[in-house]
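Hey,
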Amino acid sequence: MSTDPTSGTGTTTRVVVYSKPGCHLCEDAVALVDRVCAELGVTWSEVDISTDAELMREYGEQIPVTFVDGRQHDFWRVDPERLRTALTA
């Protein structure tokens, strides 16, 4: 699975959050990523790893995991300033 999917418009999604249902850290990360990306006009998406056995094996103990421009950026917690810096560098 790609960590750099495109939206239906063909625009590259810059931030991807790997999460699973029932994860309170994931809910916090998604809210923070949504807020920062909205401020900066950046596209983002969320991937539910519980629907993919390979992703569960790879990221199950680290969620939420965030990727920026196809590279792993953070896991467990998202630092908003670090995310802003990555998106504006």
